[in-house]
Amino acid sequence: MSKPVSEIKIGILGGGQLGRMLVQAGKEWNLDFYILDESASFPSGNVGAGFVTGNFKDYDDVYKFGKDKDIITVEIEHVNTDALLQLQREGVEVHPNPASLNIIKDKGTQKLFYKNHDLPTADFQIFESKKDIFLALESSTLAYPFVQKSRLAGYDGKGVAIIRNDNDVLEIMDVPSVTEKLVDISTEISVIASRNKNGQIRCYPAVDMEFHNKANLVEFVYFPSKISKEKQKEAENLAATIINELDICGLLAVEMFLDKDGKILINEIAPRPHNSGHITIEASITSQFQQHLRGICNLPLGDTRFHSPAVMVNLLGAKGHSGKTKYSGMDECLQIDGASIHLYGKATTKPYRKMGHATVLDKTRAKATRNAKQIKKFLKIHT
Ligand SMILES: Nc1ncnc2c1ncn2[C@@H]1O[C@H](COP(=O)(O)OP(=O)(O)OP(=O)(O)O)[C@@H](O)[C@H]1O
Ligand SMILES: [Mg+2]
Question: Which of 160, 179, 314, 352 to mutate to test the pocket of ligand 1 (most atoms within 8 A of CB)?
Answer without folding.
Answer: 160
